[in-house]
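G., before I forget:
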Amino acid sequence: MHQLPKQNNLESKNVLTAKEVSVSLFGTKIIENISVDLSVGQVLAIVGPNGAGKTTFMKALLGLLPHTGSVLWAPSVRIGYVPQKVFISRAFPLTVEELFLLRRGTRAFWFRTGKATEHTKKWLSRVGAENLFKKQLAVLSGGELQRVMIAYALADDANVLCLDEPAAGIDIGGGQTIYSLLKDLSLQEQRTIILISHELDIVFRYADEVVCIDKRMICRGSPHVVLTAENIERMYGSHTALYAHDGETHTHQHV
Amino acid sequence: MFDLLFLPFFQRAILVGVMMAVAAALLGIFVVVRRMAFFTDAVAHASITGVAIALLIGVHPFIGAVVVSMLMGLLVARLRRSGTHDVDTIIGVLFSSALAFGVVLMTLLPRYRGNLFMYLFGDILTLRTSDVITAAILLVVVICGVIALFTQLTRMAVHEDMARVDGVPVGRVEIIFLLLLSMVVTAGLTMVGGILMGALMILPAATAQYVAKSFRGLVIVSVLCGAIAMLGGLFASAVFGTPTGPTVVLVSAILFSAAALRGILKS
């Protein structure tokens, strides 16, 4: 059974304490000595350039990859994980309704009840996807599938959501909807969110904490404090800079 | 043709054939949706080596075949997960070598040389009453196993890491699935042979994907396709005097082609 290390003596508001996490694959260090602390209801963004080890770090936190260092979750956590890419082939005609029923066991899968249907529709409506209830996962667009997967992760009463680039491959409007939903979940329902992103404007807008990595930890803390021009340059190189438009900060890359 | 139904050897063939086809189709669903089609070939080919080794060391061929095919399955699963480059090539080399090794080993056993053709292509018409009992037990075991692992295997097919984070014991489920797969493949050796067993497992689910509108539908249609192809193949082989195993696979392939054509025309 996949079990995450949990510790009772974490401070009451602490959800996660990770210290000096390192991962090596095939003899090569992928990430080295990365630490984070996370409190209930916070949104933590893991940022860095392509190949920086963001996904590796998230997988290490989730216990999906062997690592050194310590990762401790509070005992009450229920984690919902949404990977960057879920590929459902056309040969797998699983419907959205069936996906949600899988959590309720074999009997519930074959003999549906009104209660189960109501539960599924409730969570789908949270992400604006109730119209997808009867659709096959394989025919959904990237954005639709992402919203369904977030609802699926939430439907198990997850109080910690880990999302690997939740808006990857989704148009701007769809991405904003997802990020606004995540922010609501953290503010109104005190759910803790860990997300990977390489869009710094998203991080400025939605994250309470950020950990910047490029194999090693570059910076960590509140985005408005630690995402300085100097740290961004250390992560992305000298051709990236911060610009402010209408009160919001964005990054642009110039060649 | 219906006179055949009164012949005991044909009755046994129908009973064993349908039971094994249902068991193979049930497992084949998860092989197909988890995109592991090459996996059944690796396991089936390795089972012939298992039979040869068992005969060489004086163990029951079924045990030898199950053990060796399971080991091959575990090796292939590990290779697949390791993310090593050229994993498909390595697996291809592995299971072709296993088949070649099994065939060479069996020809070195003069007493069993005659059985080689049966293990490669099967002979369902030579089954005994004990084979009917074995097939019935195996079908019950497979049905119970699939019911017990149904949601876990399906969640692994959606995304293995998601399933793991949700608490699905992926490693344990994989081993039990492999054990069931190895047992069915080995039992199938005497019916359609090691070379065609993979096809018997994959074709029903591959056919059903063109017809089914849901996963429930896929399960039901796969099982029906497996049973229909087996019955059709048995009667066709008796009528046309063709080898039973390949005829069953051909009937299954015809069903697949018809479903695929329908799917293409519809889209």
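The radius of gyration of chain A is 19 Å. Chain A is about 30% helix and 30% strand.

More on Monday.
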